[in-house]
Amino acid sequence: MKVALATCTTLPAPDADQALLVGALEDAGASVRLLAWDDPMNAPDAGELVVIRSTWNYFEDVDGFLAWVERTAKTTHLFNPASIVRQNARKTYLRDLSRRGIDVVPTEYAMKGDARSIPDVTRERGWDAIVIKPVVSAGSFSTQRFAATEAAAAQRFLDELTRERDAMIQPWMPSVDTYGERSLVWIDGELTHAIRKSPRFSGSTEAVSAAMPIAPEERAFAEKVLEPIATDLLYARVDVVRDENGVLRLMELELIEPSLYLVQCPPALARLTRAIVRRATADMA
Length: 285
Hints:
This protein has eight helices and twelve strands. The termini are close together. Helix 1 (about 20-25) crosses helix 8. The strands form three sheets. A four-stranded parallel β-sheet has the order 2-1-3-4. A hairpin with a 5-residue loop joins strand 11 (about 235-240) and strand 12 (about 250-255). The chain has helices at about 20-25, 60-75, 80-90, 95-100, 120-125, 150-165, 215-225, 265-285; strands at about 1-5, 30-35, 50, 80, 110, 130-135, 145, 165-170, 180-185, 190-195, 235-240, 250-255. The protein is about 30% helix and about 25% strand. By secondary structure, the chain is α/β, with parallel strands linked by helices. The chain has three domains: about 1-90 and about 265-285, Rossmann fold; about 110-170, Dna Ligase, domain 1; about 175-255, D-amino Acid Aminotransferase, Chain A, domain 1, CATH 3.30.470.20.
């Protein structure tokens, strides 16, 4: 039973889940190795179950990463599947989810080379403080918050960003400072736990809470988001926040390489380990 945990050659930040998951899989009888997606000399083996974990630099070469995903999926079994990864690699998926009736954080897109006016966007949308970030990103890469009085700085930041890549503009959600951004963790068909995250911008570190129970409203929301693809997933993370009216809104749907906060929830680690072992064993049959 062979398992490869996909990562990258140089992690931009420590992966708190990695050692726990490797140890749990080895204790379950698996042969485990780390597989850097961006190392051309380190290809997946046939019959090896590949689980995407800390490929946290993929935003630097998203096309190269997606090509690696396709090659890997043709060689062996990959989780999450290539079709899910393709759909989730660009945050334009928020637009698709909104069309499906999911309440998302309102978003305006500025594609590479576009000239979007921050004053026009904020006036038309009625937004005050805003957040600008890339459409393809990980962690807090090139993510900044701007107050209503900082329109000129926001415009410079957006113009610089769209010279190189697609960008998105969203209103700042004040409830992040109170209710917080909640990450709802889903493993093998079940929501396991939630954590509260602090706001994170370029150059800052992330602070997370201990595991928290998932409220019924949060559970129903996450299940609605995941329902069409739930049977295809090994893991997911649904990041939510409340708007000014207390309505839950989706900030991000993480289906590629989310931190699952296994340190905070040992039962989630056990569930993920069992799910991987079951899939790897099925590959051997």
